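Researcher: Sequence recovery benchmark, item below. Answer with residues only.
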């Protein structure tokens, strides 16, 4: 059974013969600084034992120093077939390693930063920094082996032993691939060595903000087919759905593989390519690292060969995206990726870096093992031939040694410092400033000046951590470096537009930036006009939606069984608008506005009420005043001829009351014209109800008087005692009292009030009197209708009584007109809107009042004015006989 403190790992050296046995490494938990080299292996839980020591890692760059910074790079690659565990693992490897020239800048950034610090007396005075760079070969097993080499003395594989007192590994710079950094952390964590790896998780919200900025809601997600890809999808998918963005489908990108196998895989996936070509999504969001991007590079290589149509899409990528090409890809076409948008680590150009690159030649540093592969494979030449060594006929031409890295195309090597290289540069300075803080702290607390430097050189890696977290400093490029409360480097991202050229070169164009520290919603700033899009979009803003946008005036309607980004467009309901594209729901206009014809925006409403200034109002006013004048004239006639028989007949007092009430009826119609106010709303319906009740009560009293008078003329009739003013007054008062009680109840419970009607007529705000209680309003009308019905019935049955001046037949006609008007009023009133409702009520008041006036008083006025000879007692008696 293996003790808990032991770490077991099996390591295979790349290119080692099949018969070589793996090594078994024991790592104890004892601190690194407490070990010294011993002769011969000893297998105990407290020591290290190695069987069959493997070949050392071939690619290394070492510069000695008092304190050493380690760096893991992915500069050299070996391609191998996929192992399926169904047969003996294949040992077929490419004879020579394949170099990634672009990654060589990461090494130069480290060397340049160390050179600057060592030449600067203000930082780490009398202390020199060194570095040791090893290659990971893009594999976990070689990363572990390289880590153990970093923990060993150079040229001697003895992890966890300090064989040279000045060979102190103080910090590690993680690889530009997260998997490599994670593998490094499994070992560095046991030794508490600080590992400088930037946190790039905040790019996820940057992707969402970018998609929102361009209104791209229908996308394709491409993620590397490993745990990191799974983690990315688990993080990004909820964010996308939360912000209204859907994915059509997900593509999993393969990692490094044998090239022939990758090309064969693409050819087999021709149908999948057709789906990617036909999708409505014009935006492909890619998450992956340089190894997985080779899969897309193979796609750009295979498409023209197979005669497939070009894939004109917008590629949106995380900061890991890079058009880094291995040497065998330098002639491959990359125009498919023209116009790509990616988040790149914010970078500046340190002073002197370009000049430093110009000094790089194949033999610039004998410890740099990487440069030979970079130079030979990039410039397609042989350094051995350049040195005069004999080479075979099929070998490359000799290198002239005049080749320059800055003349290479961007896919192989970028002239300016990239974001990953800038992170390496900042990491070296962060370690240097932390060490400087430690040195100053130890100097203050130490009394032995001579022993200060010796004591400082024994500083342990774990002592660097607290000083790193509290660092704030500026570097020569002009940027400030500091860490947040979680100990993570605070850094923003640039939005980069990648522009490719037919000769295989490319350039970066900064078109925006992402600042994760700013308030939510304002993290992204971008300049649309600077962006160069793929030629398939003709420099127009690409659309990436499931279906066409819903124009203003329409809202989105979900399609059953499909993602929420796919929808139909439904016109806005009446009275609602949508002023923008792709609105989820239409909205109502403010009360003082209404939708235009297209329902795209609101326009101001017109204030409407029955005014004295408009034609309809003028006509009704003239009509009401004219009828009032006529009524006044009739009253004057009756007052002037008050002693004539026709005026005295049927109770002269009731006649006066009826004429006055009709006059008031005509005048009360004027209360319905003009802008309604609180007092007007209270008065007009009450006045209308009471005055009309008075008029109809008077008509009823006159009718009852005719009947009672006729019955009283019969011999021995007991009704004679009811004849007189007492009966008529009682009828009028009683009937008016009931209507007054109804009005009082109406006022005390739910009185009328001024109101605005914004729904009845489109485009108008109708100023009206809200009746308060519709039931009370119709109760007033209903009561008047019952009085009119009673008058009509009594008058109808007494119309043939023998009386020369019998008013019953005239009252019958007047009540017939009155009831006809108000029966037609109710449906007409309910079917009209706005000020025309008020006009209908005014017309009904005037028509019914005019009916009473005309039917009852026209015959009498005719006799009084035009036939005065008939207005005599003799004539009345003669006609009666």
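Model:
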């Amino acid at each position: 059974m293996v003790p808990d403190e032991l770490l077991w790992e099996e390591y295979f050296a790349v290119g080692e013969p099949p018969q070589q046995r793996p090594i078994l490494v024991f790592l104890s938990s004892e601190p690194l600084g407490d070990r010294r080299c011993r002769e011969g292996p000893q297998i105990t839980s407290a020591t290290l034992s190695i069987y069959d020591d493997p070949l050392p890692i071939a690619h290394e760059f070492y510069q000695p120093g008092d304190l050493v910074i380690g760096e893991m790079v992915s500069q050299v690659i070996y391609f191998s077939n996929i192992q399926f565990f169904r047969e003996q693992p294949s040992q077929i490897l490419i004879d020579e390693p394949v170099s990634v020239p672009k990654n060589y800048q990461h090494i130069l950034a480290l060397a340049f930063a160390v050179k600057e610090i060592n030449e600067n007396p203000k930082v780490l005075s009398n202390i020199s920094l060194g570095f040791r760079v090893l290659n990971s070969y893009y594999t976990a097993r070689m990363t572990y082996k390289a880590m153990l080499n970093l923990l060993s003395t150079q040229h001697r594989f003895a992890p966890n032993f300090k064989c040279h007192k000045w060979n102190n590994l103080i910090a590690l710079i993680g690889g530009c691939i997260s998997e490599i950094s994670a593998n490094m952390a499994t070992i560095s964590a046991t030794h508490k060595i600080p590992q400088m790896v930037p946190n790039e998780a905040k790019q996820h919200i940057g992707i969402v903000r970018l998609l929102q900025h361009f209104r791209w809601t229908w996308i394709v997600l491409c993620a590397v087919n490993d745990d990191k890809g799974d983690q990315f999808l688990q993080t990004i998918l909820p964010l996308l759905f939360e912000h209204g963005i859907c994915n059509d489908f997900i593509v999993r990108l393969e990692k490094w593989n044998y090239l022939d196998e990758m090309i064969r895989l693409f050819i087999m996936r021709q149908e999948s390519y057709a789906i990617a070509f036909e999708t409505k999504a014009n935006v492909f969001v890619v998450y992956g690292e340089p190894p997985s991007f080779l899969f897309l590079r193979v796609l750009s290589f295979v498409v023209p060969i197979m005669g497939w149509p070009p894939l004109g899409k917008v590629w949106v990528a995380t900061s890991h995206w890079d058009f880094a090409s291995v040497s065998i890809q330098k002639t491959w076409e990359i125009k498919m990726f023209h116009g790509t948008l990616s988040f790149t680590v914010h970078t500046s150009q340190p002073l002197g870096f370009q000049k430093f690159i110009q000094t790089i030649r194949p033999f610039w540093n004998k410890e740099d093992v990487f440069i030979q592969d970079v130079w030979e494979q990039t410039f397609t030449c042989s350094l051995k031939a350049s040195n005069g060594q004999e080479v075979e006929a099929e070998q490359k031409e000799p290198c002239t040694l005049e080749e320059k890295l800055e003349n290479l195309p961007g896919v192989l090597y970028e002239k300016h410092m990239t974001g990953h290289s800038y992170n390496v540069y900042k990491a070296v300075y962060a370690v240097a400033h932390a060490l400087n803080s430690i040195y100053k702290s130890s100097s203050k607390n130490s009394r032995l000046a001579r022993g200060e430097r010796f004591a400082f050189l024994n500083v342990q890696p774990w002592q660097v951590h607290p000083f790193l977290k509290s660092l704030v400093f500026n570097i020569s490029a002009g940027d400030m470096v500091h860490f947040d409360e979680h100990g993570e480097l605070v850094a923003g991202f640039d939005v980069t537009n990648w522009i490719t050229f037919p000769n295989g070169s490319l350039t970066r164009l900064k078109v925006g930036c992402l600042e994760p520290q700013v308030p939510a919603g304002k993290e992204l700033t971008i300049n649309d006009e600077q962006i160069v899009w793929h030629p398939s979009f003709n420099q127009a803003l690409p659309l990436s939606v499931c279906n066409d946008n819903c124009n203003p005036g329409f809202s989105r309607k979900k399609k059953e069984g499909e993602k929420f980004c796919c929808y139909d467009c439904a016109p806005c309901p009446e009275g609602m608008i949508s002023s923008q594209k792709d609105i989820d729901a239409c909205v109502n206009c403010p009360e003082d506005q209404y939708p235009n014809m297209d329902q795209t925006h609101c326009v101001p409403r017109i204030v409407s009420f029955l005014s004295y200034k408009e034609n309809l109002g003028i006509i009704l006013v003239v009509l009401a005043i004219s009828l009032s004048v006529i009524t006044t004239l009739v009253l004057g006639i009756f007052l002037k001829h008050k002693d004539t028989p026709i005026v005295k007949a049927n109770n002269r007092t009731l006649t006066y009351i009826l004429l006055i009430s009709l006059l008031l009826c005509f005048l009360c119609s004027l209360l319905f014209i003009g802008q309604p106010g609180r007092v007007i709303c209270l008065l007009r319906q009450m006045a209308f109800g009471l005055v009309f009740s008075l008029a109809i009560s008077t008509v009823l009293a006159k009718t009852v008087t005719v009947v009672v008078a006729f019955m009283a003329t019969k011999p021995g009739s007991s009704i004679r005692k009811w004849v007189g003013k007492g009966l008529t007054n009682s009828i009028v008062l009683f009937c008016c009292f009931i209507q007054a009680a109804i009005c009082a109840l109406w006022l005390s419970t739910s009185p009328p009030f001024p109101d605005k009607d914004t729904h009845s007529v489109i485009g108008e705000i109708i100023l009206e009197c809200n009746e308060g209680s519709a039931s009370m309003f119709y109760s007033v009308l209903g009561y008047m209708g019952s009085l009119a019905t009673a008058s009509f019935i009594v008058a109808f049955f007494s119309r043939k009584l023998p009386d020369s001046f019998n008013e019953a037949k005239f009252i019958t006609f007047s009540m017939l007109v009155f009831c006809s008007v108000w029966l037609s009023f109710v449906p007409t009133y309910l079917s009209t809107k706005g000020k025309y409702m008020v006009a209908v009520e005014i017309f009904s008041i005037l028509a019914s009042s005019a009916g009473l006036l005309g039917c009852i008083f026209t015959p009498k006025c005719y006799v009084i004015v035009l036939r005065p000879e008939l207005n005599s007692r003799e004539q009345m008696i003669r006609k009666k006989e």
